[in-house]
Structures are given as structure tokens and as C-alpha cells.
Amino acid sequence: MADEPRGIDLRPLDDPPHGAEDLRERVVEALRSVYDPEIPVNIYDLGLIYRLDIDSEGKVVIDMTLTAPGCPVAQTFPCTVECAVKAVEGVKDARVELVWDPPWSRDRMSEAALLQLGML
């Protein structure tokens, strides 16, 4: 994709089954439907998704961060993301891990997010 958030680890599957790329695109669209509670941009384009792995059985593992460690939704937001991903057709299970390393910075934002916030 032309406008991926910088630094995201979207490693392809070793031998993706038929439809794996389509599933990945649907998961990314689900992530783009979830917005940061303090910034009016979706979590994918903000660069909050650090890793997105999808195995051949439709199990999704996501490492994500927040814009600040003291974020008031730190305890509940991963569940919100998990629910959005689990609702995607073809996803059998999803697990979201909150990580803090490396710390998030605006350098991780996509060009679209920078434009949307008037930072470009």
C-alpha cells in the first residue's frame, strides 16, 4: 500500500493461503475504523499499530501502542481494537498486545494522517 504508517511491521505470510491478502486488507480497514480517543485520526494511520500478523487459520496478533503511556483508555482500548478485528469476516480470533517500545512519535504517522491534522 502506498500510504502505510512508517515503521509498521506487516510481514507477509510465508505461504499465504488463497484470500490471505484480502483478509489482511479487511483487517487494516477494520483498524482504520477505530479512532484514537484524543486525536481525530484512525489508529492505523496514526502509526499506533506496530505489528500485524495473520496466520493461515485466520488468527490475528497485533502489537499496538498509544500516543502516551498515561492515556486514560490504556486499560480498555486494546479490547476495542480486538472487537473491531474479530468482527472481520474470516478472522477466527484476535489478540491485541499493548507495547511501549519504541515510544510512539509523529514520525510513525502516515502521510494521510499528517495531512488530515495539517502537519504537512
From TrEMBL:
Alphabetical list of SUPFAM superfamilies matching this protein = Fe-S cluster assembly (FSCA) domain-like
The region called Disordered is annotated at 1-20
Specify the MIP18 family-like domain's residue ranges: 24-97
Q: Which organism is it from?
A: Sulfurifustis variabilis
* Cross-referenced InterPro entries: Fe-S_Maturation_MIP18, FSCA_dom_sf, MIP18-like, SUF_FeS_clus_asmbl-assoc
NCBIfam families the record matches: SUF_assoc (TIGR02945)
Name the record gives this protein: FeS assembly SUF system protein
The lineage is: Bacteria, Pseudomonadati, Pseudomonadota, Gammaproteobacteria, Acidiferrobacterales
